[in-house]
Specification:
RibonucZ/Hydroxyglut_hydro; 8 helices; Metallo-beta-lactamase domain-containing protein; alpha/beta; signal; 8-stranded mixed β-sheet; Metallo-beta-lactamase, Chain A
């Protein structure tokens, strides 16, 4: 089925902390793979992007308990968050299946296994073919631990029309693989609708700057689920723009809580920064990810070290936000969160 293209939001004015370009891009309008490239029927997407014409709306994404009738919250099926190790996730948000930063083919080695090579500890046999029907692919960053070429290349052959939402920093990689890529700058959002009426709104937020200070930041995302207005925040380095996020709320925050450091450089933040993130977003749940918990080898592993633990994070959190619950994921096992427990 041929679908309409989309028009993205206006961008921040130049006075904002993170200046952006004049428009976001989309590659192609058709969401159906060509007949010459068949793919497994259970993975085929049936989705459309709904155009937006304004910034991410703080009022729209800041859902309140009064906005969701109790009967609706009770009848809405729970959301499911499945951790796939590393930075990879599979989310079921109101019937919309979103694959996030997948690494499902081979190890993580950035093309230089002598420098770093990371293998999953638990989901070693999980394959692309084990995924459910996908509605959307979400990419936060342009580096291989988020935009994993060894995974995305075969995935694009299976699902060339899979809708992708990404940081513009990954355009050089994704434009060669997928037909329908939407690049969101921080402050832009888009609605994603599927055939059975499910819908999410995806709003890009500012993540880390991987390079000189003038470089475009990578992305985090606030994803709002359909009628329930339940919101999930995700950024895999625990790096965020406080001035941007202070206008928003997220019921569920997915973030690293264990810091990963190199000499004189923080690769991944966490601990007290994760507590402040939860406070800033008025979170009800924290889902801590252990994106450094891999079987690793290579030169860089000798100087890479962790600071803090999940338990030390819980202690910090309990002092400042005693009512926020921590839900620790087990790789491959969905965390089910009833909508009523979050928004009612």
């Amino acid at each position: 089925m041929a679908l309409h293209g989309l028009t993205l939001l206006s961008l921040f004015p130049s006075s904002q902390h993170h200046p952006t370009t004049a428009a976001a891009a989309t590659n192609g309008a058709s969401l159906s793979p060509p007949p010459s490239l068949p793919s497994p029927s259970h993975l085929q997407p049936s989705i459309r992007f709904k155009p937006k014409s304004k910034f991410c709306s703080a009022g729209r994404l800041r859902s309140s308990s009064s906005a969701v009738p109790a009967a609706l919250a009770q009848s809405t099926k729970p959301i499911k968050l499945t951790y796939l190790e590393g930075n990879s996730w599979l989310w079921d948000l109101g019937g919309v299946n979103i694959l996030v930063d997948p690494i499902l083919v081979g190890n993580l080695d950035f093309g230089q296994p002598w420098l770093f090579d990371g293998a999953k500890k638990i989901l070693k046999k999980f394959k692309l073919q084990d995924l459910p029907e996908l509605d959307c692919l979400l990419i936060t960053q342009s580096l291989d631990d988020h935009c994993h070429v060894k995974t995305l290349t075969p995935l694009s052959k299976m699902l060339p029309g899979l809708p992708v939402i990404s940081t513009p920093n990954a355009e050089a990689i994704l434009s060669k693989l997928f037909k329908n890529v939407t690049y969101l700058e921080p402050g832009q959002s888009i609605d994603v609708e599927v055939k059975d009426g499910g819908m999410v709104n995806v709003c890009a937020t500012a993540g880390p700057i991987l390079g000189p200070p003038w470089q475009r930041p990578e992305n985090g995302y606030i994803v709002e689920s359909g009628q329930s207005h339940l919101t999930v925040y995700y950024e895999p380095h625990c790096v965020y723009d406080r001035s941007f996020l202070q206008n928003y709320q997220a019921h569920i925050v997915i973030t690293p809580v264990i810091k990963q450091l190199l000499p004189a450089f923080t690769l991944v933040s966490g601990q007290e920064d994760a507590v402040q993130l939860a406070k800033l977003l008025k979170a009800k749940y924290i889902v801590p990810m252990k994106n450094g918990d891999l079987d690793t080898k290579g030169i860089i592993t000798s100087i890479l070290y962790d600071v803090g633990t999940t338990e030390s994070f819980k202690e910090l959190l309990s002092r400042e936000l005693p009512n926020v619950r921590v839900l620790e994921p087990t790789p491959g096992i969905p965390i089910e969160i009833p909508v009523a427990s979050v928004v009612s």
